[in-house]
Amino acid sequence: MNLSSRLIYLLRGLAPYMILGLLVAAVSNITLFSYMQNNIYQTKYFDKHWIRRVQDLTWLGPYFRISSMIGNTPVILLITVPMMRHLYARNNFHTSMTFAILLSSSFIVSFTLKHMFNRERPVNDGFGEHNLTTSFPSGHSIAVPFIFFLVQWFLIKKYSKKALLLVPVLLWQTFFTVISRVYLSTHYPTDIVGGLLASACFLSVFYLGLKRNKEFFENEKYE
């Protein structure tokens, strides 16, 4: 079987879970956004409270600014493309292509959901940066869990289950990366919640798809 046929076969196995994951992510965010619209006072209180709490952490400002860069597209590609090329070179074709599919899915989920809601960004008070996209959900809060899911998968592939010891580190950095968006006044805290909810829903469904299609990966050993 040539490479294009193998890729088509892989897509046929994973595509239903990609579509279902996107639908579940969309429904979760529609439900959350509807709640926010119906409880405007509580939503504003929640956002203002956590914006104040996070932006009081001025001593973490440099760390927040560096952490925020992790969710930028060039940095995402800088992290993930070498992993995909490395896996492909090690005869892990299906794993490498699944990385590419999952990376593309993160952009699709973010783009689709942002255009569903069109929430305006917070008023920039000098902390933040210029943004052209809408606010809800946070694209960083969608992308970063995808990235660290791929990083963890890659490390397990290379170093076996010993790599699970790094999970707390990845979760720590995920947390600081997403809340950095609040510190920089680029997102409301509720945008962060929406993004994390969307990524959790999609990744849960996609992981089920990986388990159901494990025949693609079980013979791919890291050599």
From TrEMBL:
Keywords: Membrane, Transmembrane, Transmembrane helix. Residues 96-207 form the Phosphatidic acid phosphatase type 2/haloperoxidase domain. The keyword Membrane applies. The chain crosses the membrane at residues 14-36, 63-84, 96-117, 137-156, 163-186, 192-210. PANTHER family: AT30094P (PTHR14969:SF13), SPHINGOSINE-1-PHOSPHATE PHOSPHOHYDROLASE (PTHR14969). This is Undecaprenyl-diphosphatase. It comes from Acrasis kona.
